[in-house]
Amino acid sequence: MGKPLNSLGRLTVVITGASSGIGQATAEAFARQGASLVLVARDRDAIEAVAQD
């Protein structure tokens, strides 16, 4: 069966619209769970700030 949601360390998640709003909140939630992230957005400065957080 699948992995428990509290153990995402080997999971890679692609999130579009990750520079604000729901996309940013989703990225932060997956990052807290240890997933690797691929963040996509149109605003380079904003996405870099999210990636640093």
TrEMBL record:
Keywords: Oxidoreductase. InterPro entries: NAD(P)-bd_dom_sf (IPR036291), SDR_fam (IPR002347). It comes from the Bacteria. The keyword Hydrolase does not apply. The keyword Magnesium does not apply. SUPFAM superfamilies: NAD(P)-binding Rossmann-fold domains. Belongs to the short-chain dehydrogenases/reductases (SDR) family. This is SDR family NAD(P)-dependent oxidoreductase. It comes from Paracoccus aerius. The lineage of its organism: Bacteria, Pseudomonadati, Pseudomonadota, Alphaproteobacteria, Rhodobacterales.
